[in-house]
Prior knowledge:
- This protein is mostly helical.
- The chain has 2 domains: 4-55, no CATH class; 60-177, Arc Repressor Mutant, subunit A (Orthogonal Bundle), CATH 1.10.10.60.
- It is 68% helix and 5% strand.
- The protein has 9 helices and 2 strands, in the order αββαααααααα.
- The chain has helices at 4-16, 37-49, 57-76, 85-93, 97-108, 112-130, 135-141, 147-158, 162-182, and strands spanning 21-25, 28-31.
- It has a two-stranded antiparallel sheet.
- Strand 1 (21-25) and strand 2 (28-31) form a beta hairpin.
- Helix 3 runs parallel beside helix 6 and helix 6 crosses helix 9 (162-182).
Amino acid sequence: MVSIRCKMLVKAELEKLGIHYTRVELGEAEIEEDISLQQWDELNATLKRSGIELIDHKRSHLIENIKQVVVELVHYSEEPLEINFSEYLSEKLNHDYPSLAVLFSESQGITIEHFLITHKIERVKELLIYDELNITDIAWKMGYSSSAHLSSQFKKITGLTPSFFRKIKRKRKDRLNDASNDHP
């Protein structure tokens, strides 16, 4: 908001939607209560038509929390989940999953599930490179129902099977070792 007119427009729209506010200043508005997604969408659509874009710090914070939960689960957890991921996320963030999913998709342009899968595949790559676990153990560790499911998802994301990926990495590592042994 860069003018008095913008402030007046925002105040009018908030009042029209029955949203109570404590103040509207240049660049920000303070809302008294949590508003529904429907109210948010209506306000956002109306203001966008006037060239004003909403930024909700609570929503941004919630999106960052979703990402953090995914990263912690995938990269730092030693055991697979005992419950469904959507339940886990809902419990962890104290929000219903459908609302989290809509918010995340609208903001990030991908689903939470795709974000989770992408991180899982990156973690699988790390585990394949470390070469300490076989594919069945990696599948269990990452919460896949089977090594076939892991392989299918891995190939869909990377274009390679986990076995082929590991083989390529081994060859590359061997070539580097050979090159360093050739030059004293």
